[in-house]
């Protein structure tokens, strides 16, 4: 029996093994068939591509196609102008755009060779001795660089008015571009052999060769070649420079100045793209904000010209090859995280050459850069503990991103709406919240203040039939700050959302779009994008010092809803000094921490003051364009442009200027000082 049992057990095991082997064989055969099927599909697609390529080439060779080229260019021009007109929104918008372009054209003259120092200024700066004469190693990876570009690049370094630098060149050029080495060797012999003729300030630095060159056995890509440059570098600071671009003669001098004055360990400047042959033929001038982490996550606005303390690299790489195409974005995110003093020099000191093969000309020249940029941002977010986020391209540009953070839990939001009569406005506002909002855990507190119309109280009774709505009474004369402070004390929510009664929700997930930022530990107030009834912009962030009173004003004011904004800034969430109280979300705990709204600002500037109190505590304020509402501004209260209201506004403006005198004197860190404070459209000073 025992033998029989063992035999049966063995028989069962044998059959099980055979069945398992049969299953594996079956799965293998299925996978093999799938692979064969896919291979067949790929072959079909390749055949179709070849066929389409043949047809396309035949069309392009057709004489009629060639003859129609001018007509097609004209048609594409008309389409582009139609889009631009749409973005302007109206004839008024068109005229404003024309004026803007005229200002830009006139201002452009001040940022090219006209801004270069005279011989006397250059000599004075070369002889200047800073307390810290740090050596800056400028890294330039070379690859098949056109000779003209190569010479202009090298000479822009030789013309620097700060003298303690070295140029480290790693050359990955192929055998068809041997002239690259010859040109560099020519400069190397000439420059390294003339150190004795250099100014005394340079000699005291004890520098050796000015130009260091290495011919690489093989091209290792942007990251690999730049890392080879780093191996040659002996400087305390590292500068990253592209092989076909140009430096302003004063850039190193300005950087060493802020190293000495501000202990800067990461520095960048403003930049421009230019047509290949002449830096005075500028295409786009980019005047940047000071360090702003939300801007940087969404858009590599720092870009050029990065110089940083070498010690920031301790224990980490310079460029990581898996992010080639956006290796600089990855590097900037990593090193600015480590830096203690990131300093922006608000001067146009870098000239980025635009030619057919450059990203400055066309991102399609390096399509892999888009995925690399997305990967770099994702890697950065994970290092900061974020999970389950989404990164998607925006309509501004493929590498300008919308970041959707995960909302943790479902905290209650208390929406505070101050109201006096004006039932149609209030009804439109509340109805839009209740009918459109996709976020569910909220309450609406209507803060009644001195209404007199029976229709108002009838509507209140109707409202309170909804469990989500409460009406609380504030007794006393109107004071926007006092009314909202009272409402905040009555609120049950973990978050407070200040909202004007003359607003109307557009974006159904408006609360989620704001909450994802307000939940962060480093964020104070979050503001939305608001439009007038004609779809022009009322609010897209507040700029300090903007406007006639030099207190604060709204950026991009009056521009059309579809406008991309300055350098795409209407298309991504960003740091700002302040946001409007017409739609402002903040943690209740933070609201209480800074003492709520300052009640000495009865109507105006209380929101800006509140945001500056948060900023003073070290919190960031964020504007997001992805939460959109209409704001039929001042319908209920009226404007502050005449009589007592104008006088009150003047008094509050004076108080604000006095309270925040030092902050205003320092300028808005998120608004470049090259911009005019008389216009809200980022027009340059003339």
From TrEMBL:
The keyword Transferase applies. Residues 1-23 are annotated as: Disordered. Keywords: Transferase. Residues 1-12 have a biased composition (Polar residues). Coiled coil: none annotated. InterPro entries: Glyco_trans_2-like, Nucleotide-diphossugar_trans. Residues 137-312, 414-593 form the Glycosyltransferase 2-like domain. GO terms for molecular function: glycosyltransferase activity. This is Glycosyltransferase family 2 protein. It comes from Parablautia intestinalis.
């Amino acid at each position: 029996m025992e033998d029989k049992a063992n035999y049966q057990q063995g028989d069962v095991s044998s059959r099980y093994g055979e069945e398992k082997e049969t299953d594996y064989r079956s799965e293998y055969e299925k996978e093999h068939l799938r692979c064969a099927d896919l291979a067949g599909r790929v072959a079909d697609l390749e055949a179709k591509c070849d066929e389409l390529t043949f047809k396309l080439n035949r069309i392009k060779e057709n004489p009629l196609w060639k003859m129609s080229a001018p007509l097609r260019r004209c048609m594409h021009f008309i389409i582009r102008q139609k889009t631009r007109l749409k973005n302007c929104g109206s004839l008024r918008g068109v005229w404003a755009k024309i004026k803007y372009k005229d200002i830009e054209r006139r201002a452009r003259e001040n940022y090219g060779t006209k801004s270069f120092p005279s011989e006397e200024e250059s000599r004075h700066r070369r002889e200047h001795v800073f307390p810290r004469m740090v050596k800056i190693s400028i890294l330039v990876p070379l690859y098949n660089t056109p000779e003209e570009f190569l010479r202009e690049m090298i000479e822009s370094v030789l013309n620097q008015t700060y003298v303690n630098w070295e140029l480290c060149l790693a050359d990955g050029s192929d055998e068809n571009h041997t002239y690259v080495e010859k040109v560099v060797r020519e400069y190397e012999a000439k420059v390294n052999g003339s150190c004795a003729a250099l100014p005394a300030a340079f000699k005291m630095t004890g520098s050796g060769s000015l130009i260091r060159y290495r011919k690489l056995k093989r091209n290792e890509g942007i990251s690999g070649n730049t890392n080879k440059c780093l191996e040659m570098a002996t400087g305390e600071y590292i500068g990253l420079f592209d092989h076909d671009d140009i430096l302003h003669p004063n850039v190193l001098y300005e950087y060493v100045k802020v190293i000495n004055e501000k202990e800067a360990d990461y520095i960048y400047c403003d930049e421009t793209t230019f047509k290949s042959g002449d830096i005075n033929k500028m295409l786009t001038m980019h005047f940047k904000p000071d360090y702003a982490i939300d801007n940087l996550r969404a858009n590599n606005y720092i870009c050029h010209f990065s110089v940083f303390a070498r010690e920031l690299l301790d224990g980490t790489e310079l460029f990581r090859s898996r992010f080639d195409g956006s290796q600089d974005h990855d590097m900037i995110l990593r090193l600015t995280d480590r830096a203690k003093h990131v300093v922006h020099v608000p001067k146009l000191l870098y000239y980025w050459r635009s030619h057919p093969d450059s990203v400055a000309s066309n991102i399609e020249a390096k399509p892999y850069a888009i995925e690399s940029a997305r990967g770099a941002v994702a890697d950065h977010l994970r290092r900061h503990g974020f999970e389950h986020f989404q990164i998607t391209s925006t309509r501004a540009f493929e590498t300008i991103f919308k970041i959707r953070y995960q909302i943790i839990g479902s905290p209650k939001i208390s929406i505070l709406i101050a109201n006096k009569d004006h039932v149609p406005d209030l009804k439109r506002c509340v109805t839009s919240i209740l009918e459109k909002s996709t976020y569910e855990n909220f309450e609406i507190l209507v803060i009644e203040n001195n209404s007199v119309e029976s229709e108002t109280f009838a509507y209140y009774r109707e409202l309170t039939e909804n469990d989500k709505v409460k009406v609380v009474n504030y007794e006393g004369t109107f004071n926007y700050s006092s009314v909202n402070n009272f409402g905040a004390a009555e609120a049950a929510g973990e978050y407070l959302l200040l909202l004007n009664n003359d607003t109307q929700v557009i974006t159904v997930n408006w609360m989620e779009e704001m909450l994802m930022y307000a939940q962060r530990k480093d964020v104070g107030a979050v503001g939305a994008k608001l439009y007038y009834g004609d779809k022009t912009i009322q609010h897209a962030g507040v700029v300090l010092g903007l406007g006639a009173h030099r207190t604060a004003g709204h950026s991009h004011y009056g521009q059309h809803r579809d406008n991309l904004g300055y350098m795409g800034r209407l298309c991504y969430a960003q740091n700002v000094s302040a946001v409007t109280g017409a739609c402002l979300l903040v943690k209740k705990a933070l609201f209480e921490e800074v003492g709520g709204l300052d009640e000495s600002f009865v109507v105006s500037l209380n929101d800006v003051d509140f945001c500056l109190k948060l900023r003073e505590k070290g919190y960031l304020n964020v504007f997001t364009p992805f939460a959109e509402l209409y704001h039929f501004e001042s319908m209920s209260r009226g404007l502050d442009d005449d009589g007592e209201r104008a006088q009150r506004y003047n008094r509050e403006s004076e108080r604000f200027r006095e309270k925040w005198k030092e902050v205003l004197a320092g300028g808005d860190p998120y608004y470049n000082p090259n911009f005019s404070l008389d216009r809200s459209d980022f027009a340059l000073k003339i």
